[in-house]
Specification:
Blueprint (H helix, E strand, L loop, with lengths): L1 E9 L2 E9 L7 E2 L27 E4 L4 E4 L2 E2 H7 L2 H10 L5 H12 L6 H4 L11 H11 L13 H26 L13 H10 L10 H13 L7 H11 L4 H12 L7 H12 L5 H9 L20 H17 L4 H15 L1 H5 L6 H11 L7 H22 L27
Antiparallel strand pairs: 1-2, 2-3, 4-5, 5-6
Helix pairs in contact: 1-13, 2-8, 2-17, 5-6, 5-10, 6-7, 6-17, 7-8, 8-13, 8-16, 8-17, 9-10, 9-17, 10-17, 11-14, 11-16, 13-16
Bound molecules: carboxymethyl coenzyme *A (CMC).
Length: 428
């Protein structure tokens, strides 16, 4: 809906008017799609002020610490729904009825196994391969298994791919872990919940069944929920961009996994634990806090700060509660957890962090929980990728269901050489 107009003046002369579009919440946007015809492009590296799409999936108000999926507040979802309900909501738009939920759960549960040929893909990796490398490759490889579901213009095929991805990601993730530690793969079990099944595939061995603790399963489920979607972040935008060319869903999700991997995004939880290990003891915290504050030192406190949340991250608030519950319940004595808790206390009080609004983010607490429940650090980002798959695929599906979609194609401000005379190699 165009409510009003914005005028662009260059040197005091109005050169064009642009409609201002209003969404259901959040900032209005200036529709500058015709700007190119006036001889200008906008310049916005890092997309600090650019809305790249129209979406009805997730709303964030970073200033107020609001995160809602399809209009439902994240803390309500984290406390009152399980992850599969959240998946249903993200994919379908509304909370499911009991029978819709049962049917969805049964569909996901019945897609958790992977083709036996896919199992062989892992044998090509060195045992010390990072599990993210395996997941990225194996998810992309799924596109070679489901030829009958790759018509991206067909909504039922898109939904089937979405179900397959949500169901198979935990299986692939757990296989990457088992391969890296030289244990046999553990097949999924249909009698377990989504979170329990993941823990079972991670920790069971043929010699001994893993007894899933309800506290640990609940914490795992909550970690999945709190990572399920987060609007147009780097990896979701990557999935949309890859999907805008018509690429198949498995290839698009592999692109999302790659984009998530970096330490400024999904890799932060792993980087946070690596940092805690480097700090090593509570006595060293002051030194590292000073490094983080030093402008001439590139060191940052990993797990602190966020591009959009400048007061608090609502996911971190819920995750903090779970973190403290899990630590209390499991009663684990680990010096790294002491370092984490002391770092949290200092950063919440230190003037530098308070004034720059650098609060512990969701990955700070999820990293500590995952460490406490015995998940190896290298699997942290994989778990983020598993949880975020539903968000990625929901955005991909939404994009393809909107009419008039164009391939994503940003412009640039060119700063290189121009009109040079090329001298052939033998004359140079
Ligand atoms: N430690 C120390 N200083 C920091 C930190 C930090 N973690 N984060 C930001 N700053 C400082 C930064 O140096 C800058 O200072 P100044 O204004 O004096 O130049 C100021 O705070 C603003 O930082 P920025 O890099 O301009 O902010 P941004 O919005 O571009 O970056 C961020 C956000 C998350 C990339 C950044 O805070 C960061 O690198 N944090 C650590 C990595 C991390 O935990 N990432 C996970 C984010 S949550 C998961 C997700 O949603 O993907």
């Amino acid at each position: 809906m165009a409510d009003s107009k914005a005028s662009l003046s260059i040197d005091g002369k109005v050169i064009a008017d642009f409609p201002i579009l209003t969404g259901s919440a959040g900032f209005d946007v200036i529709d500058i799609r015709t700007l190119g015809s006036h001889g200008y492009f906008t310049y916005d590296p890092g997309f600090l002020a650019t809305a790249s799409c129209e979406s009805a999936i997730t709303f964030i108000d970073g200033g107020k610490g609001i995160l809602q999926h399809r209009g439902y507040a994240i803390d309500d979802l984290a406390k009152k729904a399980d992850y599969l309900e959240v998946c249903y909501i993200l994919l379908n738009g509304d909370a499911p009825t009991k029978s819709q939920y049962d049917e969805f759960k049964s569909t996901i549960t019945n897609h958790t196994m992977v083709h036996e040929k896919l199992v062989h893909f892992f044998q090509g990796f060195l045992p010390d391969a990072h599990p993210m490398a395996m997941v990225c490759a194996v998810v992309g490889a799924l596109s070679s298994f489901y030829h009958s579901d790759l018509d991206i213009n067909e909504p039922t095929q898109r939904m089937r791919s979405a179900h397959r991805l949500i169901a198979k990601m935990p299986t692939i993730a757990a296989m990457a872990y088992k391969y890296s530690i030289g244990q046999p793969f553990v097949y999924p079990r249909n009698d377990l919940s989504y979170a329990e099944n993941f823990l079972h595939m991670m920790f069971s061995v043929p010699a001994e069944e893993y007894k899933v603790s309800p506290t640990v399963a609940a914490a795992m489920d909550r970690i999945f929920t709190l990572h399920a979607d987060h609007e147009q972040n780097a990896s979701t935008s990557t999935v949309r961009l890859a999907g805008s060319s018509g690429a198949n869903p498995y290839a698009c999700i592999a692109a999302g996994v790659a984009s998530l991997w970096g330490p400024a995004h999904g890799g932060a939880n792993e980087a946070c634990l690596t940092m805690l290990e480097e700090i090593g003891s509570v006595d060293n915290i002051a030194k590292y806090v000073a490094k983080a504050k030093d402008k001439n030192d590139s060191f940052r406190l990993m797990g602190f700060g966020h591009r959009v949340y400048k007061n608090f991250d609502p996911r971190a608030t819920v995750m903090r509660e779970t973190c403290h519950e899990v630590l209390k319940e499991l009663n684990i004595q680990d010096p790294l957890l002491d370092v984490a808790m002391e770092l949290e206390r200092i950063a919440l009080e230190d003037e530098y962090f308070v004034s720059k609004k650098l609060y512990p983010n969701v990955d700070f607490y999820s990293g500590i929980i995952l460490k406490a429940i015995g998940i190896p650090t290298s699997m942290f980002t994989v778990i983020f990728a598993m949880s975020r798959t539903v968000g990625w695929i929901s955005h991909w599906d939404e994009m393809l269901s909107q009419p008039g979609q164009k391939i994503g194609r940003p412009r640039q401000k060119y700063t290189g050489e121009i009109n040079r005379t090329f001298v052939p190699l033998d004359e140079r």
